[in-house]
Amino acid sequence: MDFRTYQQRARKTDRNPGADEQARMIPLAGLASETGELLGEYKKYLRDGESHKLFKERLAEEVGDLLWYLANVATKFDLDLAQCAEQNLAKCEDRWGSLPAREPFDARFPDDQRFPRHFSVNFLTYHDERGTPKVRVTYNGRRFGDDLDDNAHSKDGYGYHDVIHLAFAGVLGWSPLVRKMLNAKRRSEPRVDQIEDGGRAIATEEGLVAMIFAYARDYNFLEGKSSVSSELLRVIRTTVSHLEVSVCAALEWEMAIVQGFEVWRAINKGQGGSVDVDLDSRTIALRET
After folding, report:
1. Helix (H) and strand (E) counts for the chain?
2. CB burial class (10 A; 0-12, 13-18, 19+) of residue 50?
3. Alpha-carbon dihedral sign for residues 265, 227, 117, 143
4. Measured distance CA(231)–CA(219) in Å, rounded
5. How far apart are CA 174 and CA 180, in angstroms?
6. Interatomic CA distance for residues 124 and 136, integer angstroms
7. Closest listed residue to residue 260, CA positions, set 289, 283, 278, 240
8. Is the dihedral of CA 269, 274, 280, 281 positive or negative?
9. Can you tell me the distance from the alpha carbon of 92 to that of 69, in angstroms, rounded to the nearest whole number?
10. What is 216-248 written as a DSSP string?
11. Stretch(es) of the chain classified as CATH 1.10.287.1080
């Protein structure tokens, strides 16, 4: 049976039809109460073990009741249960499915307007004349932007945040900032150069990195974590909805963030190092010395 047919048949057994507040609240409360009953059956199974002979039968009944209330909630709020199911699968595949194969954003551009498929960036910490630690980032012996410090009341390693930009470039194949620093802007198409590689795109990326860094700081910079919150990913994708990178799946953003902070933690601990960026394998890594 498909979800649409189930929803139509379930509607015929609704004893509280309509869409007023009471009619909507009944199935919502029903979901909560049936979830409790489902847990209750499992509690009995944990307590009684195999002597709970009717466990699977009772479990199936409670799951069925949950499904009825779920269908009823969809009906009361004028939703199509089949469509909800499709959207949910798409969301799950976007987050936990296979890594999508996608042509690089700069594939149709001349070589000098494309990211190198493999490159390395060096991070070096030194102290200026006032004894303030500064981070110098270089690519092929030239500076990769201005020297940085944390610009914060307490030292938190933000001076190494270019690692996250590199993770965007390596995993997503996208980073207006890295593209500018590598002198690989797509100037042959003025609209792409202006919109995708221009100042607003760079500011958007910088804002994303600052937001992601603040999130990671609250979770020990993702030490021991292999995922980030769905809410963070939702905000990221809303923020870049006007850019080419909007096609990237949630799992790609998550990979970039997790890999980025794995390398960032090592760079921060060692106060520097070389980061290898591999767009073919979609990885970044700290070079072993």
Report:
1. 10, 5
2. exposed
3. negative
4. 15
5. 11
6. 5
7. 283
8. negative
9. 22
10. HHTTGGGTT-----HHHHHHHHHHTTTSGGGGS
11. 3-96
| Model pLDDT for residues 78-94, shown as the tens digit of each residue | 999 999 999 999 999 99
Q: Where are the alpha helices (DSSP H) in 12-111?
A: 21-48, 55-76, 81-96
Q: What is the DSSP letter of 128?
A: -
| Cβ neighbours, 10 Å, residue 23 | 15
Spatial distance between the Cα atoms of 225 and 261, rounded to a whole number of angstroms: 10
Greatest alpha-carbon pair distance for the chain in Å reads: 80
**Pair 113, 121: CB distance under 8 Å:** no
Q: Which residues pair with 218 in a beta bridge?
A: none
Query: What is the C-alpha to C-alpha distance for residues 2 and 217, in angstroms, rounded to an integer?
Result: 45
Collapsed DSSP state (helix, strand, coil) of residue 117: coil
- Tell me the β-bridge partners of 120: 276
* 275: exposed, middle or buried (Cβ count in 10 Å: 0-12, 13-18, 19+): buried
The rounded mean pLDDT for the chain is: 95
* Number of C-beta neighbours around residue 114 at 10 A: 19
The values of phi and psi at residue 271, to 5°, are 60, 35
Q: Are 273 and 123 in contact (CB under 8 A)?
A: yes
What whole-number distance in Å separates Cα of residue 173 and Cα of residue 109? 14
d(CA 214, CA 150): 13
Its CATH architecture, for the domain 3-96, is Orthogonal Bundle (1.10)
> What single letter denotes the amino acid at residue 24?
R
Q: What is the pLDDT of residue 289?
A: 63
pLDDT digits (tens, 9 = 90+) for 175-197: 999 999 999 999 999 999 999 99
